[in-house]
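anyone else get weird line breaks when pasting these?? whatever heres mine. first is seq + tokens for prot A
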Amino acid sequence: MSLKLILMRHAKSDWNDPLQSDHERGLNPRGQAAAMALGDWLRGNGHLPDLMLSSDATRTRETWAGLALEAEERFLRGLYLAPSIAMLEVLKQAGDAATVLMLGHNPGIADFADTLAAAHPGDADFDRYPTCATTVYQFEADSWSEVGPGMGQILDFIIPRRLT
């Protein structure tokens, strides 16, 4: 069986309110546009999730809303600023979803992207994983509980500025 993971960093956040907590920061207009563009790209490439796993931060919620995709939603406090190992543990609990979209934050998501890859895509943007960076992986596994480091074949990698 083949499983697909769409691993995405949240879109560009708004830093205009210095009193706002990191967890509550939303997206700026550039981030909102990027999320919409990535949603169009995902739909256009047939990368449609059955399940979305996300940090519960405002900027990840707004990124998900901007993608305008339909899937079961799970917003989890444990994915807020989560390290790679915690992200893997959450993914292993994805149940019977064939395609999962996971939304998170750097530095954990960049590390997770690298950890999962069977081979580096040879793209400098993959290393820094800028806002709204998205990697699509395929895993030859029967369940998410079998997925581990170095098992993901990268099908696609995109960043918003390449879509304009």
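and prot B, same format (seq, then tokens)
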Amino acid sequence: MNKTTMRHILDTIAELFPDAHCELNHRNPFELTIAVLLSAQCTDETVNKVTVNLFEKYKTPEDYLNVPLEELENDIRRIGLFRNKASNIQKLCRLVIDKHGGEIPHEHEQLVELPGVGRKTANVVVSNAFGVPAIAVDTHVDRVSKRLGIAKKDDSVLEVEKKLMRLVPKEEWTITHHRLIFFGRYHCKAQNPKCEVCPLVAYCKEGKSKMKAALSKRSVTS
């Protein structure tokens, strides 16, 4: 894909979702890091329901370490993989206290060293908490990028990220991440995407195939 085509895609998605933003509720970098960690294989909506009470009970890394692991597990039981995530949260808090003075580090390289924090989580934190341009590739960004031909079907998450970084102006990386998520979450869904009203269907092989099949079906029945 060339940058001219990408520009059209970016502008179109911007018109559809001008107010796209991080939907995980948080008040500071520490809460954002915990929320993103919890969001792996879980919807933002469920995470927000859990963190309403979680962030009132636990406000500092020390708070998470002052309870038994079983209690923390119970507090996040509605989240998928809650046992593993509870363990990672306590390990993360210990490292943040011991190595970073109780504060979430600003550097990407230091963030990915934290338990439960991968490249995607680190990108979300640096971009939303610290204003550093980044494109985090989650399931929505990955799906949309491949459907629209920005990336190939067998590209890894890292390859998708690199292609987006190359095609999208750096100052637009963070907002593009949010808009691609909104586009994937509310329009180009995994199941039942809105191909029939999609202004970008011309770039989507899957969408064009679906529309062609629908037209053929209508012509047979008419």
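btw re prot B: Residues 193-222 form one domain. The radius of gyration is 20 Å.
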